[in-house]
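#data-curation
PF: Archiving a pair of folding outputs for the training set. Convention for this channel: one message per protein, sequence first, structure tokens after, nothing in between. First:
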Amino acid sequence: MASPLEKARLDRESMKAKILNSARKLFGEYGYHGTTTRMIATHVGIDISTLYYHWGEKRDLYDSVITDINDEVQDKLLEIEKLISGKPIAKRIEIGIDRICDYLFDNPEISNLILFRYFSKTRDHDYSIETKMPEYISNIAVSLGLSQTKSDITVEAKARVLAVWNAVLNFISGKNVFQPILDIEYKQYIQIVKETLNFILIPAFSKN
């Protein structure tokens, strides 16, 4: 029997999919504890009983949101890895930064949810985004040429990947603070973020 998440993925116009999308946005904006099932139901425009019918308890819906995001991020990183494979390191970084920034700016709830987990004092969910972090790190490390294989990555390489990953996340989640400081329009902000990351990362990773 298909799970609610599988059903939502099969039909992106279904009520299950609409609830999932709203939950993803609200969990990303307010975190797990700041989001209620009533808020999600109101956002979708349904009665709360309809939400429970399709998804069960809040925890069930949250876990499905996290699973959906984990799978989506993993697919995106694999897609980028294939795209940049065999290219010079500078080009790999440029393309990788461009693609991952576009993806995360289009889906800001991903960065927010990851950072919520980093800084939350209440870590009462045993299944979350960071369970997939080793896979993310492995994909990025190989893509950047820090390791030949995903099974043999040094601590130094992992730390460098985390530095890249956290820089991207913070630029995206911090947009509402950073953009006014820079006093630029949204599209220009995205471009400046990409240029800044390339300015820092290309020389750093091009060194022998």
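PF: Second:
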Amino acid sequence: MATALNLGSLTVDSSGRAFLAGTGSGIDFGDAVGKIIEAKRQPAVSLEAKVTANQARIEAYKELRTTLNTFRDALSRLRGAVSVDGAGDVFRAKSTFTSTFRTDGQTPSAAGNLVGATVTNGAAKGVHEIEVRRIAAAHKVASQAFASQGAALGLSGTFEVGGRTVTVQATDTLANIRDRINAVNTGSSASDVSASVVSAGSGEHYLVLTKDQAGSAMTIADAGTVLSGLGLSADHGATFANQLQAAQTARFTADGLVDPDRYETQVQTSASANLATLFTPKNVTGTFTLNGTTVSYDANNDTLQELADRITSQVPDVTATVVQDGLGFRMDVTTTEPSLTVGDTSGLLADLGFDNDLVIERSTNQVTDLFAGVTLSLFQAEPGTSIKIEVEQDLSQAKTAVADFVTAYNAVRRLINEHSQADPTTGAKGPESGVLFADSTLGDLRARLANAVGSGVAGVDGAFSVLAQVGVKFVDNASLADALDKNTLRIDDTRLNDALVNNADDVRRLFAFDFASSSSSVSMLDYGANTTFQLGGYTLNIGTIGQKNKNSAAVVDADALLNSPDSFAATTSGSFNVNGVAVVYDVATESLRNIADRINASVIPGVVATVKTGPGGPFLALSSANGPLTVDGDTGDLVALMDIQPDTSIIDSANIGGTADGADDGSVVINGRTLTVTDAGGATGLKLFYAGEAGVSGIGIDVTQGLAADLFFDVDSFVSLTDGALQSAIAALEGENVVAERRIDEIDARLDIQRDSLTRRFVAMEVALQSLARIREQLEQYAAQLSGT
């Protein structure tokens, strides 16, 4: 008869051995051991709960950091961070509008067809006018026509393009030569000429060369027959057989600027055709005056060149020249007198477009240096059409930045509210409370936000010192449908629009860091969290410049002997004094580097000599930490030849709020002409650049720390991945988890040993009980035999 096996009583120890529990005792010792171990494992269970709770807090901190980073980004656009050309300052954002007009009754082209305009924040508000008289064009030439671009041309030899050599083989096709030309238009010495094949028809193919840079002609040359064989040039590159486009610069006028001693006409199609064939003059014959001298003309017979010759020959101190302008010609008239006076009695000069507008030229149609912060793209010339370029402040960017600030602030505030929900009855942590309930880091953040947003900004106009005054207000907590929106912000569009339109600078100072100096020689490079407003401002005093640091003239070789032409070419040895200490030198055996070593070996208090290398070559740099540096008393001719001069790129001394002589008092750290204010100067972290003269005192400096600037540093102190409060909290929790997990592993390892020990003891007990049971059975059988039953 089979015996049923209760697998629920099967126990396996850590070595993989299986045991059947309860076979002798009736006790499920596997379950008993499990419960014993479970009871002993309660410390590990508590640690696991702690790790889980810590991990939840870590994830909450990370979520908070992500939300705060978004808020920090929003603050950075409002805080007035120092940037090149004001690119990061939304309150300096500009926009541009273009329009056209003419004064002769003709209809001008649309501005967008003539010019494109973009602006940076560095552009000044205002209106400019330009007239595009010619756009820049690249030099372009073509070969003769070839029947095929894939057939061998039978040309061999070399030619130069832009100074680069192109080698042609007899088997080369038109396409091969194109590729060879383009191959030398690479690298640091590129030819600046690109080649292409233009197919006008199935049997009409041209090699076209184009200068990459507009405004200058390409150069090609050969000593053989390749260029003539291609039909590019019959005289080895001196002239071009088929010039498609002459190189020309862009020419335009700007803001009505004039040149008093130079006039020019508009471009005419010919210099040798009669004027009457070029245009319809108001008067075919007549006169005009230049500097009071009368010049007569006959438009039916005079050419532009003849008119120029007549002016030159008849008017004293005046020269007229016909110059080629692209594919046309214009007449330039100059005078050696201070100015040229014009009397257009018959209207011919007006017909020729004769004026003294200051014509500006550029080699490209991308003009970036005409108006600061404005880039012009010249598309098309239209003489007589004025293009108006209006640069205005773009307030939409500031409004968007304020809206982004409110949105990001509200996201942070909702997250704080979520974790701060308390039981409405007890005020303690409840079922809706977040894992950061009563967290000190969260509490610190909440307090800083409340202080910054709820308080006013010191030092600004009292009418614009708090957010509500510009239309950024707290919500009405009593009417909220969602409790998480408590203490968030909302925007009053009408109020904000009005503040931006009428008081943009005041709105900027409410949010951003503001800096002002009484000297144009002082500019701000940066500021810090503790660069705060001070009633009455700060005073900057500048001491000496270049008296503690002096440099010699440069030499060719710092190791050349002093009497060498590669050094100072000195002729007489001797000695000189540095701050009163004698330094001996020998021009025949020593170099500039030796002189530096001699000065340093003399151990002159506070003086250090080094050899540095500048644009002109190596030079001797002397610095003194103990006051002005003097180099004198030379008994030879070396010092005179060294021409030691003050290094005016380094300020010797300066202070904030100290003595008027600019003496160092620890209030600023000097690095060249950069001054960084220390705690002793009050405006801690303010970094300035001074471009002025020495010995200037009483320079006024005023700063205010706007709301966004203040909050930016507060938020940064939380989100920084190096020393931020959130990272510190996360690191502490992660450290706790590492310790806890190590302790859990230790407990589990010990309990595994105890489990095996208990299992073995129970097994031994089962074996003993089974043995006793067999003995009992034997005794019972023996007793039964004795009793006869």
